[in-house]
Amino acid sequence: MKTALSFLLFCWACTLQAQPYAYITNQGDNSVSVIDTEIDKVIKTIKVGNKPAGVVVSNDSKRVYISNPESQDISVIETESLSVIKIIKVGGGPLAIAISPDDKSVYVADWYEDNIYIIDTNTLTVKTKINVGDSPSGLATDPNGLFLYVANRDDNTIMIIDLIDNTVVNTITVGKAPFGITVDAFKKQLYSANVQSGDVSVVDLNQQKTIKNIKVGDFPYAVAIDDKNNRLFVTNQRSSSVSVIDRAVMETVKEIEVGEYPEGISLHPDKNRLYVANWFDNMMSVIDIDTLKIIDEIETGDGCRAYGRFISSQ
Question: Could you count the other beta carbons within 10 Å of the beta carbon of residue 35?
Answer without folding.
Answer: 25
